[in-house]
Amino acid sequence: PLAGTTSQPALSSIVAATAHTEFDTGLSLSAVCDLEPYWEALRKVYSPFESGLPAPTGRVYHHEIPGGQLSNLRQQAIALGLGDRFEEIEASYAAADRILGRLVKVTPSSKVVG
User: Fold this and answer.
1) Inter-axis angle of helices 86-99 and 67-79, to 10 degrees?
2) Are 102 and 95 within 8 A, CB to CB?
3) What gap in Å lies between CA 53 and CA 67, rounded to an integer?
4) SS3 91
5) What's the CA gap between 6 and 21, in Å, rounded?
6) Are 74 and 96 part of one and the same domain?
7) Domain annotation covers residue 67
8) Exposure string (b/e) for 60-76, b if CB count within 10 Å is 16 or more?
9) Among 28, 90, 102, which residue's Cα sits nearest to residue 57?
10) pLDDT digits (tens, 9 = 90+) for 40-74
11) What is the pTM of this model?
12) Hey, is 71 helix, strand or coil?
């Protein structure tokens, strides 16, 4: 419940996806899911700090903006009145990344592209 959007996938997704494979976590999916109401309630406490992205997106495979930078960039775009043009901003980021030779996106090099 605290995962998704610009974060890691939910633990329940990982447990389910790796079940009965060599990567099986050994965790009970049922037990993990039993904890979700707690995490959902906790997430409401932190809702003022949400990134503004309502759901996970596959567009990250095109623009490759790191999660923390993506949430900050979105808030900056909204503050500048450009929130409705965010897909264009993502495309511009991807273009800048290509021009700069597809830098590894870790601080501080991710700031160069952004």
Assistant:
1) 130
2) no
3) 11
4) helix
5) 26
6) yes
7) yes
8) eeebbbbeebbbebbee
9) 90
10) 888 888 878 776 666 666 778 788 888 778 888 88
11) 0.58
12) helix
**Residue 94, domain CATH:** 1.10.472.90
Residue written as tokens 């490759």? 64
CB 67 within 8 A of CB 114: no
Are 113 and 97 a contacting pair, CB within 8 Å? yes
Q: What is the Cα–Cα distance from 59 to 113, expressed in whole angstroms?
A: 17
* Ramachandran assignment for 37, one of left (phi > 0), alpha (psi -120 to 50 degrees), beta (any other): alpha
pLDDT at 40: 83
- Give the H or E element holding residue 36: helix 36-45
